[in-house]
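Researcher: Go.
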Amino acid sequence: MPNEAYLDQSVHWKIRSGQLGFAEPTHPEVAEAILEGGLATEVGQRLGSGKEADVYLCRDGPRLIVVKVYRQYRTAHRGGRPIKLESMGQRALIELDLLTYAWQGGARVPAPGRRVENMFSMQYLGTTEAVAPMLQHARLEDPEAFLESTVAGVEALAEAGIVHSDLSPFNILVHEGEPWFIDLAAGIRVDRLGSPAWVRLNEAMRALESGGRALHRYFQRYGLSLDTADLVARVQTKIDLFRVH
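Model: Structure:
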C-alpha cells in the first residue's frame, strides 16, 4: 500500500521542504499519548513489536492490561513516507472490531477494551510475574490435548464469523493451559456483511490452509500431525450458511 495516497498536499509540501521528520515517537512519548487518551493509568514496558504495531504492558487502576499502538512510520510498507494518523486509527478500529466480534462470539481471544486514534486496549494474558508465552516458545505438558483445543479454537472463531488470516504458533498464546488467539489485524469476516460471500469464503479457506500447515509443522516437534484438509473442512462446515462450495 503506497503511503502517499494518505497524505494531503500540505504534508507533501512539508516533506519536500524538509520540515517534516519521520522519527517514531519515543517510549515516553507513546506512554504520554496512552495516558492522555485515558487508556491506562500507568504504562510499563513494551512487550513486543509486530509488522505495524507495538504492544505495551499497562495498568488501568489495579488491573493489568495491554495497549496496542499502530505505528505511523516504521511499518512493513515500503516508500519512506509517513502514514496519516487517521489511517492507522482506522486499522486499530478494524482490529478492535474483529476482536470484539470474536470475543462476543465466545472465541478464546483477549477481551476488547477501548480505542483512541491509533491505539486500543485489551485484556492482559499472563500472571503478575510473566506474560503468557507464544505457542512457538512454549513447552506443552499435554501437546495432544492442546492440539485438540487449538482446532476447537479455530472452529470457535469461525462460529463467531471470523477466520484468522495469519494463523501460526506466533499468534497463539498459552494461557492457563489453553490456546488464546491474538493479532486479528487481518482477520477475515465470514458472514453476510461486506464483500460477496464467495470471495471472502475462498480467501478465508486459502488463509486457513496456510495457517494449518504452519501449525502442522509446529506440532510435528511433538510427533503429532494436524490434518489441514480436515481442519478446513470442519471450519467450512461452521460457516456453510453461504451454501458455497
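Model: Confidence is low (pLDDT under 50) at residues 1-15.
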